[in-house]
Amino acid sequence: MMVMDTRPMQAIRRRAGQRFPQGALRGALLAGMLPALLLAGPPVLAQEDGIVATQSQVRELDRRLDRIERRLDSSALADMLRGVEEMQRDLRNLRGEVDTLNHRLDRLEERQRDQFAHLDERLATLEAGGVASEGEAPQEEVVDFDLPDAGEQEAYQEAFSVLMDGDYAGAIRQLEAFIERFPDGDFAANAWYWLAEAKYASGDFEAALEDFERLREQFPESDKQGDALLKIGYSHYELEDFEAASEALEQVREEYGGTTLDRLARERLQRMDGS
């Protein structure tokens, strides 16, 4: 065990006691320590100031977070979020409408191709001077000059020419006026047929369907029976009543087999099966 030699310290104490009384020694020690304490004081105060500053910054951050939270919970931001949701919903609706319009455009192009193909066949028959096959309707363009009422023939040809020019609205007006003027005329059945065709070409499929069916009911001996039945199937197809469309088209194939009507009905049925 090490023993510390205290003799030097005792000697120093004796000398100090000789030079200063006990009270004076204490005062001197305090006087000597005071500067040291003053010198040591600032770092401690600086540390305390730093702690106080940090706590103040934390409180300021808390206040700022509170303000942000209140803003997030405000009705203005909620309204903004609802507006964004509504815009997204409207965008989805617009995309659906675009898809629908594209589908209708495709269907319109198909109808136009079918219509022009049918008209081309009719015109080719007229140009060749041929006679329509069994079940196909003779062409209205062939004018019978022995008709007793030349006024009826002229009115019919005028309305038909408007239709061939592609003025469907004008043709509808003239054909309706013709039917009202000549309800039992020789061209009445044909007028009903072409009236229905004009409505079909205009996209009014329900009205076209009614007129095609009226033609078949009121004029059972008309040579337009087959064409009207085919277009009844087409109209149901456009109205997306595929069961009724299939029934009408199958009836066309059964009653007019081997004709152009049969081929057109078969092509439409194949299209329905493939869709």
Helix percent reads: over 70%
Helix and strand pattern: HHHHHHHHHH
- The class by helix and strand makeup works out as mainly alpha
Compute the number of helices.
10
End-to-end separation: 108 Å
Query: The CATH topology of the domain at 131-274, please?
Result: Serine Threonine Protein Phosphatase 5, Tetratricopeptide repeat
Radius of gyration: 52 Å
Strand content: under 5%
Low-confidence stretches: 16-31, 33-41, 130-148
CATH architecture name of the domain at 131-274? Alpha Horseshoe
Shape: elongated
Assembly annotation: single chain
Q: How is the main sheet built?
A: none
The total beta strand count reads: 0
Question: Which CATH first-tier class of the domain at 131-274 would you pick?
Answer: Mainly Alpha
Key phrases:
single chain, Serine Threonine Protein Phosphatase 5, Tetratricopeptide repeat, 275 residues, mainly alpha, 0% strand
Describe what you observe in this structure:
This protein has 275 residues and is mainly alpha-helical. It starts with 6 loop residues before the first helix and ends with a helix. Helices cover 79% and strands 0% of the residues. The protein is built from 10 helices and no strands. Mean pLDDT is 74; it is low at 16-31, 33-41 and 130-148. Helix 6 (188-201) runs antiparallel to helix 7 (205-218). It has a domain at 131-274: Serine Threonine Protein Phosphatase 5, Tetratricopeptide repeat (Alpha Horseshoe), CATH 1.25.40.10.
